[in-house]
Structures are given as structure tokens and as C-alpha cells.
Amino acid sequence: MPNIKSAKKRVLVNQTKAARNKAAKSALKTQLKYFDAAINEGNRSEADKRYKEAVKAVDQAAARGLLHKNTAANRKSKMTLRLNKIPQ
């Protein structure tokens, strides 16, 4: 444990930020799982709805710095390809 007051504060702040990041990553993964489930089900209307939500979640994660912008673009591209394989 740190002895200096400012170092003690950094420990607390880092714990708070780590918890916030963990919650945001978990929410992102949940949206991606919902999209995967809709794709596997083969329901185009549900998949379209889940696609919009998943893309928004990926964009927000990239804006917050949870994902690199190229990683976000790669994930969105893969999701789009999977969505387009489902017949109308």
C-alpha cells in the first residue's frame, strides 16, 4: 500500500476507473452476443435491430478508448458481412 496521500488517492481513482471500464466492456460484449444470437436464429428483422444497437455500442466503446478505432471498424465490417448473408 502506498504511504503518500496522493498515491493513496490514485489507487482509489484507478479502482473506480477500472470498475467503470469493466462495466462498459461487459455492456459491449452483451450487445455483441445479442447480435450473434439474432444472426444464428436467422431472423432478419431482429438481426437488423440488434445490428444497429451493436454498431452504436462499438462506436461508443471506440470513442471512450475501450477499443482502438481500427478494431472498431474491423468488428463493424465483420458484423455487416454476417448480416448481409441473411436473406431478406
In short:
This protein is mainly α. It has three helices and no strands. Helix 1 (5-41) runs antiparallel to helix 2 and helix 2 packs antiparallel against helix 3 (69-84).
Q: Structural class per helix/strand content?
A: mainly alpha
Helix content: over 70%
Average pLDDT, to the nearest integer?
95
Shape, principal axes of CA atoms = elongated
Count every helix, treating DSSP H or I runs of 4 or more residues as helices. Answer: 3
* Main β sheet profile: none
Radius of gyration: 18 Å
The separation of the N and C termini measures 59 Å
Spell out the helices and strands N to C. Answer: HHH
Indicate the proportion of strand residues: under 5%
Q: pLDDT below 50 for ≥5 consecutive residues: which ranges?
A: none
The total strand number stands at 0
What is the strand and helix layout of this fold?
Layout lengths: L4 H37 L2 H21 L4 H16 L4
Model description:
The protein has 88 residues and is mainly α. It is 84% helix and 0% strand. The chain contains three helices and no strands. The longest helix is centred in the N-terminal third of the chain and has 37 residues, at 5-41. The protein is elongated and about 65 Å long. The protein starts with a helix and ends with a helix. The mean pLDDT is 95.
